[in-house]
Amino acid sequence: xxxxxxxxxxxxxxxxKSWRIFHWVNFLAVFAAVVTGIYIARPYYQxxxxxxxxxxxxxxxxxxxHLYAAITIDVLCVVSFYLYFLSRFERPVRKLLPTREHGRxxxxxxxxxxxxxxxxxxxxxxxxxFNAAWFTLLHLLLLFQLFTGLQLYVYSLESGLSSxxxxxxxxxxxxxxxxxxxxxxxxxxxxxxxxxxxxxxxxIAFHVYYEIWRTVYWREGDIAIAFxxxxxxxxxxxxxxx
Amino acid sequence: xxxxxxGEGGGSADGIGARSESEYEALRRRCEERLRELExxxxxxxxHLPSLLRSEGMSRRTFLKWASATTALLFLPASFEKLVxxxxxxxxxVPVIWVEYQDCAGNSEAILxxxxxxxxxxxxxxxxxxxxxxxxxxxxxxxxxxxxxALQAFRGKYILIVEGSIPxxxxxxxxxxxxxxxxxxxxxxxxxxxxxxxVGSCASYGGIPAAYPxxxxxxxxxxxxxxxxxxxxxxxxxxxxxxxxxxxxxxLTGTLPELDYLLRPKFAFGYRIHDNCERRAHxxxxxxxxxxxxxxxxxxFCLYKMGCKGPMTxxxxxxxxxxxxxxxPIGVGRGCIGCSEPGFWDKYAYxxxxxxxxxxxxxxxxxxxxxxxxxxxxxxxTAAGAGIAIxxxxxxxxxxxxxxGAPGAPPKEKS
Lengths: 242, 415
Description:
heterodimer, A: mainly alpha, two-stranded antiparallel ribbon, elongated, B: five-stranded parallel beta sheet, 8% strand
């Protein structure tokens, strides 16, 4: 508390409760989608339930969970893009504007990472440009999975019928048929959908590592943001924010 | 209802698109009118269908069973059975020219099955087949003269059936005594055709000749012919029932059937093999054949892990089967290779699910063998893991942990 009182340490809120809920739901949905998606691509275990085939749905459940998870991710993705522009807490899109200041900050954060924190010339109390870009990349990858995944889903609805009406397959065709042409047919779409999963896993690997690294080297409790929503920020005497 | 995609042109129209009772009634009246017109015209070939059937030992009942099945194939109600039977009898009013390019003659073989002709196959005798290099007796200049006669006599009225892909690389594929290239031949014959029907995967999308690296730059009919109605009946070989269905549809209604975005008739290619597969329950259940001859194979489990591409393949072979309904690939314990899909030889015809195949997808980057999606993906993850490990090690060795009062540039003021 001394530090806080003296202005050298400040407590900053980085994620409101709703953002943290989105974060963990997103994590669980991506995890579920990866586990079930790999099964759909290459079933890695056999159904060992002593029931006739018509009464057990191992692949059926995997596909159902995959689709539920995908829908959850898709909705969160749409919500996230809304928050990017119109959040009352913080609008990450501001950090993405290509200004000279943001460019400098982006490379300073990168330099901090590659100089192993021997150089730290930016304000660590707020969302930095590098992380803003990194999180945007995640949402773009998820958006890409949305388009390719829905194309893989809608092609089986060739009849144009669905339980909610013909508008739904029609809308999916309109929104996703470009992927069919862009990636050389359905097999190409499956290929990129499957491969993008690896990109997402690599993204997660770096994200987790980077947040732990920041926690260890910055000593500002960054990892706590995803749980409690807050971190501390160190400031030099006399230059701290209010 | 319209023919869309490449190959649009006059001649294609409504097809069987009726949904309500009144629409079916209107369609029935239209078909009757069309059949009356055809019956009033002079047959191009003196074939009496009932006599032909009798000579092959087929009863009227067998023929009516066929008419019933074909009515169902075209998604028409049972009240159309008599019209379908009448249409079959007047198929000899439709002139057909059949040409063969870069192929194995598999589609001609399919329709000529020697194991005992079916009604679909017999109808080939009814159709006025004006030219078919493999079947006709004349050859050389005589055959060429017959073709010219047919072109003159039926200008704008004949259906051109194309079998085989078209090489576009110079020096490949010539036919006839004048050594005309397949490409020029197709352009010339399609110019005055009423419609072009591409039979088999080669004629539809290039097929096996167009497989990577495609040395002859083989293409499908729709890549070459423009401004004409085109129907693709892919598969390797195509199912004779589907060809007869398209021709019968034309005889019955005067229009081509409703097509999907790959110009395939929807009555045959409007649903996946997977959706009507006899092993579908095993797919949903998670019961798979792991290797040939294992316990799963003996119990007819799903062939997905053996590379069956039924979930991605649109065709009706799981319903009408091959060789007069005798069997089909999955029925004999062999997975589907997706032969009715574009680029099937490169993208579908391997014996593992896509994720397990060590072949590239041509058209993406053509990266070469052994670079499948999992290989690349695991490589990427390994690189990410190695990068993280190196960075963590260097951080531990050279990193500097921030502390209060540590030197560094002051952060900017927050507003």
